[in-house]
Structure formats: C-alpha cells, structure tokens
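Regression test case RT-17, inverse folding.

Input:
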C-alpha cells in the first residue's frame, strides 16, 4: 500500500498587467474600440487556456532575445507577449503562478 500524498492545494494564479501592455491596449482602444473589445474577449479566453495548460496545440511560441518570454497569437493581426514566474514552497510545490502580460502587438 502506498503512502497517501500530502494535501497540496492548487496553486493560485495572478495576472499582472505591465505598463507597456496597458499602454498598448489603451492605444488600440483609442484607434479601434470594436477591435479592442474583441481582443479583450480573446485575451480572457487565452489566459484561461494558458492557465489550464492542457492543450499542446495552443498558439504559443518562445519570444524575445533570451527565450524567457512567450507570445500567444490572439488573431491573425494581434498577439500578446508574456512572461511566467512561479512562487514555490520549501518542498518545491508551486504556490502561485504569475503571468506578466508584457505587450500587445500588431503583427
């Protein structure tokens, strides 16, 4: 009989908007409010998908010079970039997943 696994809670998720992402989204809202609303909806869905991380076919790729950031294709015209960080306990269990939304880019 195997020993019971310790009760490890599901890690919390925190989404952080960086000033550059907020500025990019504000620019899009000023230029095209309808497109901004569509992108906001797609962003919400994308964040849910990323957090679940169960689908290997997500439109995510490495992004940036150091490869420590990722991009997610929201539409043929737009993608957003993000960085992940994880807070862990002393035993290495994930406590909090942090998603830093860096930029909203026109392709």
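Golden output:
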């Amino acid at each position: 009989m195997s020993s019971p696994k310790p009760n490890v809670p599901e890690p919390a998720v925190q989404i952080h908007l960086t000033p550059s992402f907020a500025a990019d989204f504000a620019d899009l809202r000023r230029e095209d409010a309808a497109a901004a609303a569509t992108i906001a909806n797609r962003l919400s869905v994308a964040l849910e998908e990323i957090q679940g991380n169960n689908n290997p076919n997500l439109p995510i790729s490495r992004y940036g010079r150091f490869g420590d950031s990722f991009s997610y294709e929201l539409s043929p015209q737009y993608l957003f970039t993000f960085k992940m960080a994880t807070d862990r306990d002393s035993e290495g269990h994930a406590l909090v997943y942090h998603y830093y939304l860096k930029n909203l880019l026109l392709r």
